Amino acid sequence: MADTRYAQLARDLSERIATGEYPVGGLLPTELELGERYGVSRHTVRAAIAELQQLGLVSRRKKVGTRVEAASPNAHYRQSLASLDDLVQFGATHVREVRRIAEQVLDRALAAELACPAGSRWLAVSSLRRDGAPPHLPIAWTDVYVDASRFDIALLAEQIRAAPEALVSSLLESHHGRRIARVQQDVVGALVPEALAAELQAPAGSAALKILRRYIDTAGELLDVSVTLHPADRYTLSMQIDRERASVSSRAPG
Known about the structure:
By secondary structure, this protein is α+β, with helices and mostly antiparallel strands. The protein has helices at 5-18, 31-38, 42-54, 84-92, 108-114, 153-162, 168-176, 194-200; strands at residues 58-61, 65-68, 77-80, 95-105, 121-130, 138-147, 180-191, 207-217, 222-231, 235-238. The termini are far apart. The model is unreliable at 247-254 (pLDDT under 50).
């Protein structure tokens, strides 16, 4: 598989970090500077930096920049989410292998998990997600369910096969005229089932994290639901919570 431009940029930056050109504790050039230096778009630069974050090489802080945290990568994956754009970037920086696309009628157990009506028809897409850097360890198994009553599922299936690196929600936006307004996310502890142990290269019954995301459009309608299982020893979900600044009102003495 040929490297994408972001992967080539990420590899070059990681090599420069390893040689000390960008030392631990220092900052990488800005997105604009890297884009001009390598002749790539800011989107490509962001994808490359996101991959370096996943490898534990850098961290990003608003109004600070991209700081070098380590000279060599670690095998543990950290996902940092602050916006819908982060989720899109998450899909773009991984190798996704589509294993199955088929129409599915939800039984009671699955309907309860997805909070959808039992007996309803959905397009089910199962895929294995690997780390974007060698040795491409499995990061997660994902099952995505798309409401079959709202879309041409045969067309959507073709689009998914043609662009396996894209989030299904991104394809719904780019090809079907729907816009995601918010994502509801639940994270629970789970165990790796025997049926997925070989795919995830993790022992059956070992600890895992299950993440359920419900994608809601601007009209408040549920478009798709994803259920992702991560081996716990390869995954950290990182979020930043800021204290909201209280407004202070003053009144002149009267």
